[in-house]
Amino acid sequence: MGLPLRAASALVTACMVALLTPGTAVSAAAPRLPGQLKKIKARSWIVADAETGEVLAAKNPHLHLLPASTQKVLTAVTLIPLLGADAEIRPTEETCYPEGTKVGMTPKLTYKAADLFRALLMVSANDAAMSLTVPQGGMKPTLDLMNAEAKRLGANDTLAGSPNGLDVDLGLNVKTQHTTSYDLAVILRQGLTLPDFVSYAQTNDATFPALREVKDKKTKKKKTKKYKMPIYSHIRMLPTQSAAYDGFVAGKNGYTNAAKQTFVGAAERDGHKIIIALMAADSLWDNAKALFDYGFANAGKVQAVESLPAPPGTEPTALADPGATNAAAPVPAQRKASVNLVLAGVGGGFVVAGGAILLVRRRRRPAIEAPDE
């Protein structure tokens, strides 16, 4: 016996309200939200199939939040196609001494771009990020390139205000610098198409050019000598690290007081490559493992709740008109409107009324802006 018309109408209305409300979404074909996902303490997260672009589960995937050092993925994805690995970069006094984590650069040395990209992605070096802006003519032209690249990739809710992800220290807040877990997945997916990016990001240990004072054995006087300083990745999911994850490919973590813990990463098992992202999280590695585990358990088995745009290719972004980078980019079709099958109670859009399946078509929500923390 079917539901009365008034009850059916109320049920559809409730589903539409749920779809327009930020929340946790999983496919109707998926099992009920596993306990390990319910326990994740983060304002936003996403699990996506890197091959197909299908989003398998998400919580507030389009919520504007501060990126912290996950911003460096966009920096690398933008600049790697522009700078050859052997390109020589001479940093300035200003770029060598930013706030936060540094690898110890000096304006007395010239560095290869490959060394800076490794330091950027392995040890989250803010001085490397700033020094990578030098070939483009400084921070403003580099940010123009980064924001243009974000739009080209379909990361339409991303605004870069710094190349390193620092926020309050630079006078930035969520209005002047933001991204989303969805956009982080989009940007990393592009990074996975760049062999140099993957190589830099999955390096566990390397060396970095540095200077140190040594005493001359003959004169007993101190002199400055160049040497290769060991550096070790901060990404704990890499092999041999404390939270090593089988099949982990590449990723980037971040932290500021305002952004809290952030992370975007990819792993591959049994022919499936999964991308996950976490934002404003209380902790990273256990949460990341839970998201990866969910992705591998459900890839190819559940209906997508939405899709990532396909990577557009590896042509470097060029700014014919730097002033045009603030223009609104077209929204990918799959985000304008998509049919989503999601469990009732977690952003539901799949209901049965009078024996009929009602699919509620979701229109792209306006970007939801979180308050600066």
TrEMBL record:
Q: Where is the active site?
A: S69 (acyl-ester intermediate), K72 (proton acceptor), S124
Q: Name any Gene Ontology BP term.
A: peptidoglycan biosynthetic process
Q: Which Gene3D superfamilies match?
A: DD-peptidase/beta-lactamase superfamily
> What UniProt keywords are attached to this protein's entry?
Carboxypeptidase, Cell shape, Cell wall biogenesis/degradation, Hydrolase, Membrane, Peptidoglycan synthesis, Protease, Signal, Transmembrane, Transmembrane helix
The answer to whether UniProt assigns keyword Ligase to this entry is no
Annotated TM spans: 341-360
Q: In its keyword annotation, does this UniProt entry include Cell wall biogenesis/degradation?
A: yes
Which SUPFAM superfamilies does the annotation name? beta-lactamase/transpeptidase-like (SSF56601)
MF terms (GO), sorted A to Z: serine-type D-Ala-D-Ala carboxypeptidase activity
Name the InterPro entries for this protein. Beta-lactam/transpept-like, Peptidase_S11, Peptidase_S11_N
Annotated substrate binding lies at K252
Q: Specify one Pfam family.
A: Peptidase_S11
Residue ranges occupied by any Peptidase S11 D-alanyl-D-alanine carboxypeptidase A N-terminal domain in the UniProt entry: 38-282
Report the leader peptide range: 1-27
Which family would the database say this protein is a member of? Answer: Belongs to the peptidase S11 family.
What the entry lists under PANTHER family is as follows: D-ALANYL-D-ALANINE CARBOXYPEPTIDASE, D-ALANYL-D-ALANINE CARBOXYPEPTIDASE DACB
Instruction: Specify the protein name.
Output: D-alanyl-D-alanine carboxypeptidase (Penicillin-binding protein 5/6)
Which organism does this sequence originate in?
A: Actinocorallia herbida
